[in-house]
Design goal:
CATH topology of the largest domain: Pnp Oxidase, Chain A
Helix content: 10-25%
Number of strands: 12
Structural class: mainly beta
Oligomer: single chain
Order of helices and strands: EEEEHEHEEEEHEEE
Largest sheet: 7 strands, antiparallel
Strand content: 35-45%
Bound molecules: flavin mononucleotide
CATH class of the largest domain: Mainly Beta
CATH architecture of the largest domain: Roll
Amino acid sequence: MNKEGLRKLTYGVYIINTKDSGCVVNTLTQVTNDNVIVAINKENYTNTMLKKYKKFNATVLTQNTDMKVIQTFGFTSSKDTDKYVDFKTERDSNGIKYLKDHMAALIECEVKNEIDLDTHTIFIAKVINTKKLSDEEVMTYDYYHKVKKGVTPPKAPTYEKTKKGYRCPICGYVYEGDTLPDDFVCPICGAPASVFEKID
Ligand SMILES: Cc1cc2nc3c(=O)[nH]c(=O)nc-3n(C[C@H](O)[C@H](O)[C@H](O)COP(=O)(O)O)c2cc1C
């Protein structure tokens, strides 16, 4: 199948926070007046916690969001780490934590339905409350890739396998190309070229 057309779809970048877990997503979408959907990979701990807790909030990232936030919430698992420990947090009306700095909005939701879609679960949720957090420009997925030089991790729905390149063993960033320059530094986590692993 030619997937070129899919690259023309646009998305935002968000953090889904639930009890003791949270992850970056690009798949949050408003589908009716007060309902949203989000696709979460079944291997993500946030999927497990969402199925149990059925409540979450989403924060809308802005162009000023620190890449450390995306590295923590998009490339590590809440199963092994407390992702919130290094950041200033607040709690929503359900007591669920969220990061407030450089976020544009908070959207509180309750899961109403789930659809099993092979690798992912689609959560259908009712919006309970929303709050504007700032007037900073929101971060689009395109901005994340083109300006912030961000990459797509394997568990994101938009992930495509790269044929050739070098992978950072720390955060999963893939440098596409035949030769990795000696002075290359991972744009996500700062790891040096010497630790990158070749992928064919
Ligand atoms: C820009 C970006 C977009 C992402 N979009 C999604 C998504 O829509 N759904 C998903 O399941 N994972 C997505 N991910 C991957 C998860 O954030 C990642 O697998 C995370 O480490 C899961 O953490 P957890 O195990 O604590 O839930 C995305 C990551 C990034 C950086």
